[in-house]
Structure prediction request, 218 residues.
Amino acid sequence: EETAERGENAYDWQSLMFLYNAAIKEVRTKLDIMNDEFQYIHQYNPIEYIKSRIKTPNSIAKKLSRHGLENTMENMVEHINDIAGVRIVCSFTSDIYRLAEMIGKQKEFTILYIKDYMKHPKESGYRSYHMLITVPIQTTNGINPTKVEIQIRTIAMDFWASLEHKIYYKFEGNAPEYISRELRDCAAITSKLDAKMLSLNEAIIAEKERQQSEEEQS
Ligand code: 0O2
Prediction:
């Protein structure tokens, strides 16, 4: 029965995945252009790298069941907001808000919501800036607003999140308290590292400006 159901819905599944893939392409291109503009204004590239992925059917099913929802295509489209995911890894915490502002100004993007886990870190220690947007995808059937979750983080935040994700998955959410505590400690360390790197960068910029004005005066 399950196979028959999947067969009937194969076309829908494929066209949905086509939309999510197209949406990722649109977002990545816009971000590339934004990075170039940023280079032009601030003389450096804030984006270290961009990763994108389509959530696997298995991971979608798991998330639906975590939310107590039946594994249907309707529930998936309605409730799973990160089927198309784009992750922007940048240099400094200040870049995150600059990039978020630039993304917010994109006319083609509609911002559905923002979750600022930098201002309000999660219980786990997770920090990141999430934006849920829709991008219009034009097909022969018309315009399809398609959801993409954009996560913006520093390298340090990404380092922590990637490792925490791996460790925590081994316990399927039931990690012993001392491990969760240690992970929260690590999050605090990465947060300190981000703050130090940011102030170091600011000091370097100030020093460069001082040297330049000295050169101009002599
Ligand atoms: P994966 O494998 O990364 O795709 P939720 O509350 O999670 O059920 P929602 O609304 O999507 O639903 O939550 P949120 O917090 O806006 O975004 C969830 C995503 O953020 C996760 O996706 C992770 O990518 C990331 N994330 C959130 N919290 C943590 C955390 O504590 N540790 C790590 N490493 N990542 C986190 P998925 O689907 O859970 O996982």
Q: What stands out?
A: Residues 111 and 133 are 4 Å apart (CA to CA). Residues 2-156 form a domain with the Beta Polymerase; domain 2 fold (CATH 3.30.460.10). The radius of gyration is 21 Å. The chain has one domain: 2-156.
